[in-house]
């Protein structure tokens, strides 16, 4: 309860930050980023999202919090776009929580944020999790289709960890899947993980879905993923999540 109060206060007083973890293409070029929420706590340092997102989800604070994330990312996308820094950049991805997505006004909220910030919808990728999908597939599809109409794209986060992942591929209007870090981390030692990752990449190719591999930490992992046709790579091998100003420097230095 204390943490929830402090989080609410941080949100109200501008005490939260968005960092951006770069995503690279197979040839090494910078291709995009995932926006990640950071809470620098005056006493405890950075509080991990895994600790405070569930609290926010539980209490409903995730609604204003998620809106702040979306607005902040879109304002940033709009600014970088006007500065000419997003040429050749495929997307900036934003995490959407289940409760945020299932609001009746979610589609209108995203459209309003795009209009207010002037962010080009084509640069926005929304990352959904399994938690979103299992609740109401018909409503999920309707919302995704409405936003894809506007040009927004969708990615499924933590792919492979859910119990019905294959069902999403068949039913949801997706553009991208993110291979969960747990499959990538043991690629070098676990033949089962190699088989799973190969299978995901092969399926994605047949279904015409882009794939992002998460948690890429070594060249060996990158090479394996590259050999099997992975499109985007995210992880410490390339970069940790960066404050906005530092990510902007990466965008700028490309030219
Ligand atoms: O930032 P980190 O890599 O520690 O992320 C931990 C978890 O928190 C991940 O599952 C990530 O998706 C989630 N997360 C990070 N930022 C956000 C956000 O802005 N919104 C939501 N809903 N989840 C986030
Ligand atoms: O949305 P998701 O939960 O997948 O968020 C990504 C999380 O993974 C963040 O907490 C981020 O800090 C973390 N992360 C990003 N790159 C790496 C990496 O290469 N290795 C590990 N172990 N974690 C990473
Ligand atoms: Mn994510
Ligand atoms: Na993930």
UniProtKB/TrEMBL annotation:
One GO term of the biological process aspect: signal transduction
Residue ranges occupied by any EAL domain in the UniProt entry: 1-255
Q: Which UniProt keywords apply?
A: c-di-GMP, Membrane, Transmembrane, Transmembrane helix
Note the coiled coil stretches, chain numbering. none
Q: GO CC terms on record?
A: membrane
Q: Which GO terms describe its molecular function?
A: cyclic-guanylate-specific phosphodiesterase activity
Record has Nucleotide-binding as a keyword: no
Q: Which domain of life is it from?
A: Bacteria
This chain belongs to the protein called cyclic-guanylate-specific phosphodiesterase
Organism of origin: Methylomarinovum tepidoasis
């Amino acid at each position: 309860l204390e943490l929830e109060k402090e989080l609410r206060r941080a949100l109200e007083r501008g005490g939260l930050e968005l960092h951006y973890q770069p995503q690279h293409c197979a040839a090494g070029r910078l291709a995009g980023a995932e926006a990640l929420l950071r809470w620098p706590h005056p006493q405890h340092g950075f509080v991990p999202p895994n600790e405070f997102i569930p609290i926010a989800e539980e209490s409903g604070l995730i609604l204003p919090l998620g809106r702040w994330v979306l607005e902040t990312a879109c304002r940033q996308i709009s600014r970088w776009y006007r500065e000419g820094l997003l040429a050749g950049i495929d997307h900036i991805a934003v995490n959407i929580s289940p409760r945020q997505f299932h609001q009746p006004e979610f589609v209108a909220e995203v459209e309003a944020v795009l209009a207010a910030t002037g962010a080009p919808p084509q640069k926005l990728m929304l990352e959904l999790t399994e938690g979103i999908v299992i609740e109401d597939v018909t409503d999920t599809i309707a919302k995704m289709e409405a936003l894809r109409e506007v040009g927004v794209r969708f990615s499924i986060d933590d792919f492979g960890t859910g119990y019905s992942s294959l069902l999403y591929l068949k039913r949801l209007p997706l553009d991208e899947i993110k291979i969960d870090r747990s499959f990538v981390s043991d690629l070098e030692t676990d033949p089962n993980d190699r088989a799973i990752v190969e299978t995901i990449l092969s399926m994605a190719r047949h279904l015409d879905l882009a794939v992002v591999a998460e948690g890429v930490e070594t060249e060996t992992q990158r090479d394996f993923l590259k050999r099997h046709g992975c499109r985007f790579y995210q992880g410490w091998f390339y970069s940790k999540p960066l404050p906005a100003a530092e990510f902007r420097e990466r965008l700028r230095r490309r030219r």
